């Protein structure tokens, strides 16, 4: 199911809850506390260039937002992992949490980084992707096991260490945990997704 040419709802529901009313919107700058303005300015001055997505609700706790922002900036932009692996794992985390914002943002980034569109489509539909590169298959196995079982078996761990090293394994698991965390924050806050032309939002799996 290719996402190309698919109409994108303006505000698809986070987590498939029936209401899309945003619970924790971005406050007007004049209504921000000095700490909130400082935290917002730090995000704007960094690689993200704006306060959006999870940083909208996180701004209610500006110190937390700043520290989470630093962790996320490292994992997204400076990690030892290849961008293709990072984006693949991010898509799995977004699908696992039914988070529209991160899915709509990262599905096209994954394809741009070299992940096959068929792999992204399979993740969206809850199918096991086929025909992946070896390192993608290893990353996917580890990501799926961690999300489903909160750990991994010895065989999956050994394959991941052989492929990414201990450094890479720690960063991959941390990346997954980071994105699950910010997806949960947005799901609770009902932070709107930013629709992109040609990128389909996630659909709920059949009950």
Structure description:
There is one protein chain. The protein has 207 residues and is mostly helical. The chain folds into two domains: 33-78; 81-192, AhpD-like (Up-down Bundle). It has eight helices and no strands. The protein has helices at 34-45, 55-58, 62-78, 83-97, 100-113, 117-125, 134-149, 154-189. The longest helix has 36 residues, at 154-189. Residues 1-9 have low confidence and may be disordered.
Task: Draw up the topology in text.
Layout: H1 34-45, H2 55-58, H3 62-78, H4 83-97, H5 100-113, H6 117-125, H7 134-149, H8 154-189
Helix pairs in contact: 1-3, 3-8, 4-5, 4-7, 4-8, 7-8
Judging from the principal axes of the Cα atoms, what is the shape?
globular
Q: How big is the Rg?
A: 17 Å
Strand content: under 5%
How would you state the average pLDDT, rounded? Answer: 91
Q: How many strands, which pairing sense, and closed or not: the largest β-sheet?
A: none
Number of domains: 2
The CATH topology label of the largest domain is AhpD-like
State the order of secondary-structure elements, H for helix, E for strand: HHHHHHHH
Uncertain regions: pLDDT < 50 for 5+ in a row?
1-9
Multimeric status of the protein: single chain
Calculate the terminal CA-CA distance, rounded to whole Å: 20 Å
Number of DSSP E strands: 0
CATH class of the largest domain: Mainly Alpha
Number of helical stretches of at least 4 residues: 8
The CATH architecture of the largest domain is Up-down Bundle
Share in helix = 55-70%
What would CATH call the homologous superfamily of the largest domain? AhpD-like
Structural class: mainly alpha
């Amino acid at each position: 199911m290719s996402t190309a040419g698919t109409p994108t709802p303006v505000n698809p529901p986070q987590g498939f809850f029936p209401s899309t009313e945003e619970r924790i919107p971005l406050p007007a700058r004049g209504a921000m506390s000095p700490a909130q303005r400082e935290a917002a300015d730090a995000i704007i001055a960094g690689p993200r260039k704006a306060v959006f997505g999870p940083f909208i609700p996180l701004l209610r706790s500006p110190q937390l937002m700043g520290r989470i922002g630093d962790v996320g900036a490292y994992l997204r932009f400076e990690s030892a992992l290849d961008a293709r692996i990072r984006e693949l794992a991010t898509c799995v985390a977004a699908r696992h949490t039914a988070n529209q914002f991160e899915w709509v943002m990262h599905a096209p980034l994954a394809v741009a980084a070299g992940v096959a569109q068929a792999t992204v489509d399979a993740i969206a539909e809850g199918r096991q992707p086929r025909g992946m590169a070896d390192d993608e298959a290893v990353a996917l196995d580890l990501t799926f096991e961690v999300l489903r079982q909160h750990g991994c078996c010895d065989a999956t761990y050994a394959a991941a260490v052989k492929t990414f090293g201990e450094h890479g394994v720690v960063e991959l698991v941390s990346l997954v945990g980071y994105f699950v965390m910010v997806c949960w924050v947005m799901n609770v806050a009902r932070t709107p997704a930013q629709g992109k032309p040609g990128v389909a939002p996630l659909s709920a799996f059949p009950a």
